Amino acid sequence: GDSVTQMEGPVTLSEEAFLTINCTYTATGYPSLFWYVQYPGEGLQLLLKATKADDKGSNKGFEATYRKETTSFHLEKGSVQVSDSAVYFCALRGGQGAQKLVFGQGTRLTINP
Amino acid sequence: GAVVSQHPSWVICKSGTSVKIECRSLDFQATTMFWYRQFPKQSLMLMATSNEGSKATYEQGVEKDKFLINHASLTLSTLTVTSAHPEDSSFYICSAPTRQGENIQYFGAGTRLSVL
């Protein structure tokens, strides 16, 4: 079945550092790919998405490119802030109208000032 | 943006009791809602798909008699953990897409269940 593998955390960086959180997936067909973020005490929020190969999702300075050849959707940000501290989830939704999301295990990110 | 409200956010109960968790879509109608379970430091695992006006669809390995789901209106789905035991302690999260087939789901803040 479909699956998502995420970089294990926790990840601790200093403010203004470069961030990469790796995500690879296994899926049949052509899934849509997502990054969700969960801030302390809040529900998951969609951060960005990509629906087809070579699409780049971007939001709040974060970017991820849908790489079909490497089955990856790595999350990057050039300069992180303390407010980016949260848990990040990579997820996929299968093709053909599927609604179910399959999540990676989540990566806890802590940014120190 | 769309909001999904989940209640309660935290519940502690005695072993053998039942606990009901509510999931509401506040500014949109949701014919479908999803219930997830999250263990510490692990991923969200889909438990079931809640369908308004019909029976829920459970994922393999999820006991439907243990986790009762009711989706009686277009804005409310409930998950009842029946005869809870300590191994049911977990973080339960609901979500809903704003329109049938929409590619974005909105999540509740989750409910932490602790069974003593």
Which key features would you list for this structure?
heterodimer, A: 113 residues, mainly beta, 6-stranded mixed beta sheet, 4-stranded antiparallel beta sheet, B: 116 residues, 7-stranded mixed beta sheet, 11 strands, 0% helix, globular
Outline the structure in words.
The complex is a heterodimer of chains A (113) and B (116). In chain A, strands 2, 5, 6, 10, 11 and 12 form a 6-stranded mixed sheet that branches. Chain A has 113 residues and is mainly β. Chain A is built from no helices and 12 strands. In chain A, 0% of the residues lie in helices and 50% in strands. Chain B is globular. In chain B, strands 2, 4, 5, 6, 9, 10 and 11 form a 7-stranded mixed sheet that branches. A 4-stranded antiparallel sheet of chain B has the order 1-3-8-7, with no helix packed on it. The mean pLDDT of chain B is 90. Chain B has 116 residues and is an all-beta fold. Chains A and B meet through β6 and β11 of A and β4, β5, β9 and β10 of B.
How is the secondary structure organized here?
The complex is a heterodimer of chains A (113) and B (116).
Chain A lengths: L2 E4 L4 E4 L4 E3 L1 E4 L5 E7 L5 E7 L5 E4 L2 E4 L9 E3 L8 E8 L7 E3 L3 E6 L1
Parallel strand pairs in A: 2-12
Antiparallel strand pairs in A: 1-4, 3-9, 5-6, 5-10, 7-8, 8-9, 10-11, 10-12
Chain B lengths: L3 E4 L2 E4 L5 E7 L6 E7 L5 E8 L5 E2 L8 E7 L2 E6 L8 E8 L7 E3 L3 E5 L1
Parallel strand pairs in B: 2-11
Antiparallel strand pairs in B: 1-3, 3-8, 4-5, 4-9, 5-6, 7-8, 9-10, 9-11
